[in-house]
Amino acid sequence: MDPTTSMYVAQGIHGIAYGMVLFLIASGLTIIFGMMGILNLAHAAIFMLSGYFCYQIIAMTGSFWLGLVLAPIGTGIFGIFLERVFMRSIRASGHLGELILTLGLSMVILGLVKVFWGTQSLPMQVPEIIQGMVNLGGLEYPIYRLFIIGMSLVVLVLMVLLLYKTRLGKIVRAAVSDRDMVNALGINIPVVFMLVFGVGCWLAGIAGVAIAPILTVFPGLADQVGMDAFIVVVTGGFGSLAGAFVVSIIFGLLSSYGIQFLSQLAPVLMVIFMAIVLAIRPNGLFGVKE
Amino acid sequence: MMKKTIKPILWLALLVILIFFPKLFGVYYTNVFVTFAIFATYAVAVNVLLGYTGLLSFGHAMFFGAGGYGTALALKHIDGLALMPAIGIGFLAAMLLALVLAPLVTRVSGTAFAMIHLAFGQLFYILALKLRHITGGEDGIGNFPIPAFTIPGLISIPLKGDPVNFYYLAIVIMGLSLWLMWFFTKTPFGQIQVGIRDNEKRIDYLGYKIPQTKAIIYVVSGAFSGLAGCIYGLFHNLVSADGSLGAMISFSPIIAAMVGGVGSFFGPIWGTAVFQVIEELTHRFTDRVELVMGVILILVVMFAPSGITGAVNTMKMKWHAYTASKAKMEKTS
Fold this sequence. Notes:
heterodimer; A: mainly alpha; two-stranded antiparallel ribbon; 11 helices; B: mainly alpha; ABC transporter involved in vitamin B12 uptake, BtuC; two-stranded antiparallel sheet; globular
């Protein structure tokens, strides 16, 4: 490949890798929103927290793989704890209360992270096998990003199987479309909520660990990547997994090619895209009217 | 009867305290009070949207910043610009921004409305950081000239480096804005916005155009937020991305409104006062203001969802019920 094509291809794969990470965060957000009507503003902070968990596990045990498995699980358990202690008790006070509660939670998590780990960037080393470059028909490409794409695809397939092939998935999908009816059918909705919230946080946790070696771990991570994930959910349509997936990939590509051509204004492109989509379809690309 | 005589006396007392405030409390607390007045006006402007119309915006900092940047840029680039036109430019800049955004944002409500504002707020924050040649990047625009307040042929009061004179200017402008917004919520049009909050469909059936009605309120809220931001910029003689457009600038009026009581006009002012006191105290012991604010938010949402004014009202009602039942008891016995 000549240098120009290889540059385009490299940026394209970069974009897909970032899009997959965005999708891991946004999928949790959008399922939680679809089921409970809560837009969890603490999701970005939870995503960042997972990076710190992984850093801590690596610092204690020295194994990246252990961190990759345990940090998201720890994040999921933390999410379940948040749901049980905070979300459940204020369900009655409406959207406004929930938004502000999750905003408060996110501020507290950020504040505590700064207390425990400080504000500096913490670097993270990946093991030898997924370090270095691989040759893709003349293009030298970092293995780690391919590893992210592969891992995200595995998680994605698992999620699709869980949602569309199991009884639990059926219940979740039914609850997204009509929560009260499912509750009336005798299914314990609060427990399903708790599980979904945990799984959503687990997905964000995987994304947090995946992105940590590239961007390092720092408190600004929540704002930087989390904001993109929120925009994805709004643009894709609240509660729509397909929308989240499509928009995540578009945003990943927009951001990687945007940095290539308009390095100053890459973040602006996403907001412009969102504005155009919402001007035409106020409920998002795949959103249904409430 | 008591209330009718006491109220004017209380207002008069407040006026006297405000006039002699710099003499009574010194320069430091005068400056604290100016900050309080600015953020109280800003919180009320946000609450006109949040409490009265039920639209939560996570990005009002963009209006606050538009006001600040508008005035600062005008004063920096236009030689000999007088003070009032400069403030007017800041006000109009925020109003213009609200007018441009209104057609897009008034079509959605609830969570989508909040998130679009989060995104746009972040967009303006990034733009202010990246467009270095216009906004000065992270350093912002500082040390721009602040003209004296003049009425041609009558008086000229210097403001730069004179906190007491600036205090009077800020108090008058903020007081006037508060009065205008209060007046606005009392008009028939202002009552419609409460109707939109409570039952949008019904107002629609009554023949009001919902998006357009929302747009007008949105512009009012944005413009007064801009005015607060403009005075804030003049007060510090600096507008910067973090100081005027940061996420905390968007969140703090919401927190103030929540703490004070959403839906009551004076609630956000009480909230800002509490907020200011807490910030003063926490700054003395720790720099983790964010953590403290987060904990306060969680506590308020979980235990006092209607804020201070709500809690006071409940207590009042309980007290009335208590005295009424006591009177009844005495009668029967």
